[in-house]
Amino acid sequence: MTRTVFATLRRAGVLTLALFTLLATVQAADARVTRIIIDQMGNVSGDTSYNQWIGRAFGELDPSDSHNTIITDIGLAPLVNGRAQYITSFALVFPKDPARISGLMWHDVPNRGGRLILTSDLRAQGDLGLSSGWQGDNANATAVPANAGTLAPVTPTNNEWVQTPVVTGVTGRILGRIINRSGTNQPLNVMGNPIPYFPANSADNSDALLKEHLKETITGIVTEGQTIPNTDWKFCYGAGATFATPGSPTALPVRVCLGNGRTFDPAKLYQLAYTVQNPYVLGAGTAAFRDIQSFFRYEQQDQFGWQNPLAGKIRSAIIRGVSQSGNFTRHLIYLGMNEDETGRIVHDGAWPLIAGRRVANNSRWGQPDGVLELYQMGSEGPQWWHKFPDRARNLPPGGILDRCSRSDTCPKIIETFGGAEVFALKMTPSWVGTDPKNDIPLPDNVRRYYLPSSTHGGGNGTTTENPANTGASCPGNNWGVGTLRANPVPSTGLVNRMKVALRDWVMNGVEPPASRWPLLLGAKKERNLVEPTKAGMGFPSGVPGIPDSIFLPENFVFPILDYDWGPEFDHSDATGNPTNIPPPIRSVIKTLVPRVDADGNELGGVPTVQRDAPLATYLGWNITAGPGHPFYDGRPFHAGQVCNYVGGMVPFFKTKAQRLAAGDTRPSLEERYGTHAGYVAAVKAAADNAACQGYLLAGPAAAALGAKCTTTIPAGFPDDWAALVNQAMNSDVCNQPGDGGKCNPLGP
Fold first, then answer.
1. CB within 8 A of 620, min separation 6: which ones?
2. How far is it, in rounded angstroms, from Cα 420 to Cα 184?
3. Is 559 helix (H, G, I), strand (E, B) or coil?
4. Side by side, which strands form the sheet with 471-474?
5. H or E element, residue 569
6. How far is CA 436 from CA 231, 318, 527, 595, in A?
7. Buried (b) or exposed (e) across 211-233, using 16+ Cβ within 10 A?
8. H helices within 622-719, ranges in order?
């Protein structure tokens, strides 16, 4: 079968005639990566012992191959010699001394295009690193360079991209939403990045519908305002465009310009339903991610004789992704793409971090930048590993591991996440299903670790009795700012421990620590997964800054919304063509949350210093500030609701007298610890609890400080027990000038 790279993509590189002719003459038996081009060869920054090569992989897909048929629109993609074409960028990191190579490759999934370079702790082990593109929407950081399809060098950036096929001439409807904006010219964005599709006719908005929303609840109830007449707005391009001079569609983002005296009101949301054209075959980007790992692991050379420097040197591989890219990791496994086109396993291990869904990367008009705000895809179909019924949505039983189980290509999986994934990113149905009556058992190849009371990605770890009095920024589509301070609970200790654990499990078969997450029914018959109400959680009264209104269903936990995307969409696989825009909400899926202790800190997760020796109530949620609040920043639409997926904290008062005067029921630092030494002792006990159960690295430095459970730590990894205790010893907790080492210097 002849091979070539693919036809022209809009706003992307085109093949030169010479290159097209050259590639078309090469024969091969099946579809895979066909050509590797290295655009830059150098060292990892600050490490001359490691190579860092930046390049491109050209590849092709057989639309009739059973490994590819699940790709939406692959049958409509432009073909060259019966194959759909792609190009993906990559960064390859490996030791210059072959004797140092450990045999393990970490295949990192970029988040919204950001390139990932193997960190020094893993380079100290001699591991290999690969970062490669998957997000084929060609927008912002994932934009394809103009000369990507030529033999000429591409100037490297810090981003990964993939050029996927485009189905030209096809149109369909999508939504764009403008939130908390003013003025007359605003972009159509998703998660701060451009919606990646152009209108079918930028000069004609006659079939578009621009509506005001006066209010939206977390549960999807919309209060509509007026419909903006189509004579009062236009599609426009460029920040300087106006209603009178809208510009032409040469570059994203698509914008909306108001005219006839209208301006955007920041107290309203503007929802635009409009017709777009030329969808990307986004699932080809997932296949490209599969294929490039398979190439470096199994192939000696490409079709043009380029020699793979790692041929025969990769014994195992781990796919790893954080947040959006962790959702991609789950998506790749669900699609069966941990198996290459010849039936070989691609990754032996997988680590989705802070990820509770499957990214929307395999439907027509998909927007993989979405974060599960209203009308965004991502929670369709099974989100759990084992096959399990989906009773509430009346879908067939299924699980993420179904396809890889049939081909015996499932990886060993560690998943780590925390509070923000529960309250905003719809995590708990993956533990108990859509009709939460039972805990879904974990398969033998999966381990789960819940970091209690934590924000998305963990906090900065600051240990102080006087945290900065500023609100946390709410992520998402221009959401707002929180009323509560940023949550400092760090994820680094758990992440470091699980990095070592997954590496040992994949390479040596060493079992990781026991899974820990909040259960409907625990080993001691305790229930740590409960109704999302103040009473159900056992949340204490009198916590400053926490009004009872936040616990109302319309404000609190983001539930899965059972959308009806229409008859051309597969609601289990999240594939096909969504034709209902906006989709009706058939039901609101019941969501459970962790129970809390008398301080409001979560129960049921892995032991941590912050949970067991707290300085505050640490929350996986925050509250969006509205007018009148000192942190309010002029973005009122979501005021009083959960602050999307960012956590918060409410510090304890220092003395008993202070907290009694404020009506706070939570014990003060004085009542908990008494002295600075008492606080340090509590931190040591909490660190021991975590280390002795296997969830915290404690080595020689910890032993020197009196740790009870220590072990050998691999070179390059930190002694997190010692770091936490040293931080406590050097902190200002009951250790301010004039304290005399006491929480209440005037007390006994």
1. 418, 419, 420, 421, 422, 423, 453, 454, 455, 487, 602, 647
2. 34
3. coil
4. 471-474, 480-486, 648-651, 616-619
5. strand 569-570
6. 49, 32, 13, 15
7. bbbebbebbbebeeeeebeeeeb
8. 656-662, 669-672, 676-692, 700-704
The H or E element spanning position 620 is: none
Write out pLDDT tens, residues 339-360.
999 999 999 999 999 998 999 9
Residue range 252-300, pLDDT digits in tens: 999 999 999 999 999 999 999 999 999 999 999 999 999 999 999 999 9
Confidence of residue 30 (pLDDT cuts 50, 70, 90): low
Cα–Cα distance list, 684 to 172, 432, 464, 679 (Å): 59, 35, 16, 9
Q: What is the C-alpha to C-alpha distance for residues 115 and 80, in angstroms, rounded to an integer?
A: 30
Crossing angle of helices 492-508 and 720-729, rounded to 10°? 170
CB 56 within 8 A of CB 147: no
* Full 3-state SS string of 444-503: CCEEEEEECCCCCCCCCCCCCCCCCCCEEEECCCCCEEEEEEECCCCCHHHHHHHHHHHH
How far apart CA 704 and CA 702 sit, in angstroms, is: 5
Report the chain's mean pLDDT, rounded to a whole number: 94
C-alpha count within 13 angstroms, C-beta hemisphere, residue 128? 27
- And the tokens for 200? 């079918």
Between CA 378 and CA 425 the distance in angstroms is 10
Query: Phi and psi of 552, rounded to 5°?
Result: -70, 145
**217-263 pLDDT, tens digit each:** 999 999 999 999 999 999 999 999 999 999 999 999 999 999 999 99
Total residues belonging to the chain: 748
Structure tokens of 397?
């039983």
Tell me the percentage of the chain whose pLDDT exceeds 70.
Answer: 96
| Residues paired with 90 in a beta bridge | 55, 132
**Contact (CB, 8 A) for 416 and 580:** no
Pairwise CA distance, residues 487 & 622, whole Å:
9
Sequence-distant (6+) residues with CB within 8 A of 444 are none
Answer for the pair 707, 643: CB distance below 8 angstroms, yes or no: no
Report yes or no: 56 and 36 within 8 Å, Cβ to Cβ.
Answer: yes
Alpha-carbon distance of 739 to 676, in angstroms, equals: 9
Q: pTM of the full predicted structure?
A: 0.95
How confident is the model at residue 746, as a pLDDT? 85
Quote the radius of gyration of the chain (alpha carbons, Å): 26
Pairing of β 84-95 and β 388-390: unpaired
Answer yes or no: is pLDDT of 564 > 50. yes
In whole angstroms, give the CA distance from residue 650 to residue 46: 40
The CA-to-CA distance between both ends of the chain, in Å, stands at: 86
For residues 239-255, b (16+ Cβ closer than 10 Å) or e, as one string? eebebeebbebeebbbb
Strands (E), 229-383: 233-236, 255-258, 269-277, 316-322, 349-353
SS3 state at 707: coil
Both tokens of 543, joined, read: 């916590």
Cβ-contact 296, 105 below 8 angstroms: yes
Instruction: Record the tokens describing residue 624, joined without a space.
Output: 């969006």
Cis peptide before 582 (omega within 30 of 0): yes
Q: Which of 55, 155, 158 is nearest to 114 (CA)?
A: 158
Q: What is the pLDDT of residues 587-636, one digit of tens each?
A: 999 999 999 999 999 999 999 999 999 999 999 999 999 999 999 999 99
**Cα-to-chain-centroid distance, residue 596:** 25
Position 409, amino acid: T
| Average of per-residue pLDDT across 191-204 | 96
Token digits of residue 188? 């159509």
pLDDT at 31: 60
Those residues with Cβ within 8 angstroms of residue 240's Cβ, 6 or more apart along the chain or in another chain: 185
Spatial CB neighbours of 746, under 8 Å, sequence gap ≥ 6 = none
